[in-house]
Design a protein that fits this description.
Layout lengths: L1 H22 L26 E2 L16 E2 L8 E4 L3 E8 L4 E8 L5 E4 L19 E11 L2 E13 L8 E12 L10 E4 L15 H9 L4 E6 L13 E7 L7 E9 L2 E2 L2 E2 L2 E6 L2 E2 L4 H4 L4 E3 L6 E4 H14 L7 H5 L4 E4 L11 E6 L5 E7 L1 H4 E7 L3 E6 L1 E4 L3 E3 L1 H4 L2 E6 L4 E7 L3 E2 L2 E2 L1 E8 L14 H13 L3 H19 L16
Parallel strand pairs: 5-10, 6-9, 18-26, 19-25
Antiparallel strand pairs: 1-2, 3-4, 3-12, 4-5, 4-8, 6-10, 7-8, 8-9, 11-12, 11-27, 13-28, 14-15, 16-17, 16-21, 19-26, 20-24, 21-22, 22-31, 23-24, 27-28, 29-30
Helix pairs in contact: 1-8, 1-9
Length: 509
């Protein structure tokens, strides 16, 4: 009897855990709102044509049907910055309607405004496209500070500065939204570049890039350069913001070698982080702390987001090594800006930050490093006399997110064909002749665990455990489990997203 009670108790507990975790399965969608009071809350501290073939260093490239892809046509095809997002121009429907679409490697839906909104200048009018077809399915996505709802449809899309050809793709036509489109942005939709498992309402909705690869025959690789490093996010001018290369990598956009880390799981672009350093200080945490829940690379997240314990350790290490003796806690928490007199150089007060990633040779690692210019970020000025900055790192309850704060220092190759991500020094991550990022390696990974990504059980495994336990449970317990689990499953059909790294939550206006 005692044993039966024990088994039933743990079956109930694990199934309850599953039910709750299923509710909070999430897709981050996330740029900074940045509402700061720069009067009372400011801390006034004084102070070419490229053939697609192997490049000899392991980069996976292959020819398209014509034998070449003009990557140079794709160079500088992005605009924007980390605060407002990086977007690309697309032509949607027949005849084509041009819209700017946010590039997001942390989600998988292609969604565009399909109705007027006060914060956008134009939208995709489905009635004017002779090739648009509704699928009759609805989709609704909610965020911590915003949401959109619409219908799923199919239409033709081309990219003026992308691969040649027109493709037929799934489109989520946004008919209503709240807090998704905000003042100051210049994009009217979002391009999710992650894997099908994150697509809403389910994985049967083929993501955009999967359709491009299948229909145009290009290699299953894209690469991304984001060039907003050191630019004020409050600027009203949209300068060229970077490049999205579909089908491979453009050598002129990076310097030196490409270093690769495995994609641990194909949903987000999940990687394995081995350790963090502040200056020359190792945070000395168990490597599982860095990967708690997950560690992902996400172009749609503005900041470098760290699990709470890691964030606290990093702030403590920066405080110890910084040349500033006293610093407002509000700066670290993201509620206050730090301001210096114009002409001062605040970056000299702060150390470098380094992230160690496991290499494709799993016994080794390599280190990507960002200088303070990338994480002490200019936001605005005050009365023409002060320059104000924000802290480009925040805490997270949903794992580590390597966002634009880090990505702006590197050319990132999303080599889906070989299930790996590549990092190289970005040719645009330079300020006043000084490189803002570094890559070094290889280093031995013998001093860390063989598997640092071991966090909470993944959904498929939890399903199997739950079903096995339910098979030996009494009928009454089974009924109770159904009561607990079914509401969460229904809610997920509506596409609820609860990740605190939401696009709306982290957008600067």
């Amino acid at each position: 009897m005692a044993y039966s009670t024990f088994v039933s108790f743990w079956a109930f507990a694990l199934s309850l855990y599953f039910g709750v975790s299923y509710c909070y399965f999430s897709i981050p969608l996330k740029i900074y709102p940045g509402k700061y009071n720069v009067s009372s809350d400011v801390n006034l501290t004084s102070l070419r044509r490229v053939a697609l073939k192997s490049d000899g260093s392991g980069l996976s490239l292959a020819s398209d049907p014509t034998g070449t892809v003009n990557f140079l046509d794709m160079v500088n095809n992005l605009q924007g910055d980390s605060g407002r997002g990086y977007y690309i121009e697309m032509s949607i429907g027949t005849p084509g309607q041009k819209l700017n679409i946010l590039v997001d490697t942390g989600s998988s839906n292609f969604a565009v405004a399909a109705a007027p909104h006060q914060f956008i200048t134009h939208y995709f009018n489905t009635a004017l496209s002779s090739t648009y077809r509704s699928t009759g399915r609805t989709v609704a996505v909610r965020y911590t500070q915003g949401n959109w709802e619409g219908e799923l449809g199919i239409d033709r899309v081309s990219i003026p500065r992308g691969p040649n050809g027109t493709i037929t793709i799934n489109i989520a036509a946004i008919l209503s939204s709240d807090g998704f489109f905000l003042p100051g942005i210049n994009w009217q939709g979002i391009l999710g570049l992650a894997y099908p498992v994150l697509a809403r309402p389910d994985s049967s909705v083929e993501p955009f890039f999967n359709s491009v690869v299948r229909q145009l025959g290009i290699p299953d690789i894209f690469s991304l350069q984001m060039c907003g490093a050191g630019l004020s996010a409050s600027s009203t001018t949209d300068t060229t913001g970077g490049s999205l290369i579909m089908g491979g990598a453009e050598p002129s956009l990076y310097r030196g070698s490409v270093w690769y880390t495995p994609i641990i799981e194909e949903w987000y672009y999940q990687v394995e982080v081995l350790k963090l350093e502040v200056g020359d200080q190792n945070l000395n945490l168990d490597c599982r702390e860095y990967n708690m829940d997950k560690a992902i690379v996400d172009s749609g997240t503005t900041l470098l987001r760290l699990p709470v314990n890691v964030f606290n350790a990093l702030v403590e290490a920066i405080t110890r090594s910084s040349l500033i003796e006293e610093f407002s806690s509000g700066f670290w928490e993201g509620t206050k800006l730090a301001c210096w007199m114009k002409g001062e150089n605040p970056w000299r007060f702060f150390p470098k930050l380094s992230i160690y990633l496991r290499a494709t040779n799993t016994s080794e690692s390599f280190r990507i490093t960002i200088l303070p210019q990338l994480y002490i970020q200019p936001v605005t000025d005050v009365d023409g006399t002060l320059d104000c900055f924000r802290f480009g790192v925040s805490s997270s309850t949903n794992g580590m997110v390597i966002g634009a704060t880090v990505m702006e220092g590197f050319y990132v190759v999303f080599d889906r064909s070989q299930r790996r991500l590549g990092f190289a020094l970005s040719s645009c991550a330079v300020s006043d002749g000084v490189a803002l990022s570094e890559i070094e390696g290889p280093f031995s990974a013998a001093d860390v665990a063989a598997d640092c990504s071991g966090g909470p059980l993944k959904e498929p495994l939890v399903w199997m455990i739950s079903y096995a336990l339910m098979a030996v449970c009494a009928l009454a317990l089974l009924i109770l489990l159904l009561v607990l689990i079914l509401p969460c499953r229904c809610g997920n059909r509506n596409g609820e997203i609860t990740d605190e790294s939401s696009l709306v939550r982290h957008r600067i206006k």
